[in-house]
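hey so i finally got around to running the thing on that chain from the lab meeting. sorry it took forever, my laptop kept dying and i had to restart like 3 times. anyway pasting the input first so we r on the same page abt which one it is
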Amino acid sequence: MSLSADPSFTVGSTGNLIASTGLAANTSVSATFYIGVAGQSGAAGSITTGIALFGRLQIASTPGSTVAATNGLNVNVYSTSDGTNYDTIAYGVSSVIPSVASTVARMSWDLSPGQYKLTLQNLDTTNSLTAVVATLGTAG
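ok and heres what got predicted. didnt touch it at all, straight out
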């Protein structure tokens, strides 16, 4: 593949993958998304279509004013090759964003083109996260 123009990065609008949502104690939320997968226009969870060299996924987590000793937001990204069967072991992204009371924490990862499932789980079994946001930008 040759590039006909210089690659550029397109910033995603905040929350374009998962809009700001509260996450109750010990619960999870997930979303599927594509990076540079041709022909996926209009598919559920599609954030970008066509040519993309990579995507940058950013997760923001905001706990309430109280956090338990066991806390944090568990982040896992799973890949698929056939569009149906997702990996059972996370694809390079398996992290915990620690919680500090009332403090926003953000973490980012770069992902290659493909189809993915993002899963976010609140590890605090007694307190909720007041806001969880997932944003995806692409370069191509």
